Amino acid sequence: MRSPVRVMSPGDGEEISDNTPLLQGAPQEEAAPVCCSARYNLAVLAFFGFFVLYALRVNLSVALVDMVDSNTTLADNRTSKECAEHSASSKALHNQMGKRYQWDAETQGWILGSFFYGYIITQIPGGYIASKVGGKLLLGFGILGTAVFTLFTPIAADFGVGALVVLRALEGLGEGVTFPAMHAMWSSWAPPLERSKLLSISYAGAQLGTVISLPLSGIICFYMNWTYVFYLFGIVGIIWFALWIWLVSDSPETHKSISHSEKEYILSSLKNQLSSRKTVPWIPMLKSLPLWAIVVAHFSYNWIFYTLLTLLPTYMKEILRFNVQENGILSAVPYFGCWLCMILSGQAADHLRAKWNFSTICVRRIFSLIGMIGPAVFLVAAGFIGCDYSLAVAFLTISTTLGGFCSSGFSINHLDIAPSYAGILLGITNTFATIPGMVGPVIAKSLTPENTIREWQTVFCIAAAINVFGAIFFTLFAKGEVQNWALDDHDGHRN
User: Fold this and answer.
1) What is the pTM of this model?
2) Dihedrals φ, ψ of 291, to 5°?
3) Please, are residues 225 and 41 in contact by the beta-carbon 8 Å criterion?
4) 491 or 59: which leads in pLDDT
5) Which of 4, 46, 306, 332 could form a disulfide with 214 if both were Cys (CB 3.0 to 4.6 A apart)?
6) d(CA 294, CA 355)
7) Do 17 and 5 contact (CB within 8 A), yes or no?
8) pLDDT tens, residue by residue, 321-356
9) Cα distance between residue 439 and residue 303, in whole Å
10) Cα distances (Å, whole numbers) of residue 376 to 78, 285, 370, 383
11) 184-216: burial string, b at 16+ Cβ within 10 Å, e else
12) Residue (of 346, 348, 374) closest to 205 by Cα position
């Protein structure tokens, strides 16, 4: 079978190769339908896996509001009086049975941030292990471990702050391997002209997990008590693990029920893109400017993402003054928009490449610019409209929604420049991109001692400036072709 990706001479550009539709003139493309295909089944199962993963990650942001004694928060965290109380109090219906803890703002910051201290450790090891043994078990047990630890959250809280911090760090260790493992799996499963669609479907689960878990956690806290938040999502994670182990394989070659035509379609489309080297070219990899372009973009984007993910419930409660039930629902609205945008942008990106002959790098740049500069503009706007609740929610929703374009931009560029080492590359970029999750909320807290709108404007402007810088850096230095060092013959040339 003729290879769909021709071997290029040193003078060739990837843009030329990328403009050629996959398997041009070959019948196999028609013989690999989307419906009920193994690769799309993998995308759907991964979707639900990342749904569970983010539900397990963000539920504490809402539950913590109910876990802390209101007398402690009153003495320590003064709610802004700049905006009027948005809704009538409904405390008569609010279940107060859950145990409360005397945790001040600094302690709460340590509890929320401890997750990332575990998360950052396993990024690169996760990518390396997945490249050697496959991502199926690594991803499965990463989510299973997080789910099991989540079930023990109420017990750890009773033991004290130290135990809860350690438990959250262990959850971070489990989650840290998941994205690199998934990228490593897609390096064997995703045909080049379907990458945007397949990866956006699988990773969109993270956004929907946020959409569902934030309001659901608020409702559970409101009508039951906060302990059930952790029990529910922990059990769902265990159920997902059983389905994942039963239905998924590391590669098309080892899948039990994949059709012959689909297997040939996937393998032929990836021919000449994968390396058979047994060792990882660490030095050329770390010297690669296109890799560092992804690092800068990933770091910059996550500054806004983690600032909103961890502090949006706080902003809703203390500045816009929504109650706990409305807080969870309204905090989730922006991520619903992002989920929709990820799904649609993945379809659009692959359509531009396959039907309109856009080069890979052109698509990645366009989608990254929209997905980074757009959120920056609307985040700043959200900070400058004062107490207009409707506009605030609308601008925050548009900001987060536009971020979904990045799922077809820099987020999957690892697979473009080095598909054989995509898991390791994501481990490297996500290590740097985790830093905003650790320091961003801390800096935001330090910049908002009085919880005024002006202080939050500063927080939003800093995040926006970092995002714009990342977008420009990626546009200037990113590449769309497989790099020399990522191929079997990587000694400075491609021949």
Assistant:
1) 0.84
2) -65, -45
3) no
4) 59
5) 332
6) 26
7) yes
8) 776 556 667 777 888 999 999 999 999 999 999 899
9) 9
10) 28, 30, 10, 11
11) bbbbbbbbbbbbbbbbbbbbbbbbbbbbbbbbb
12) 346
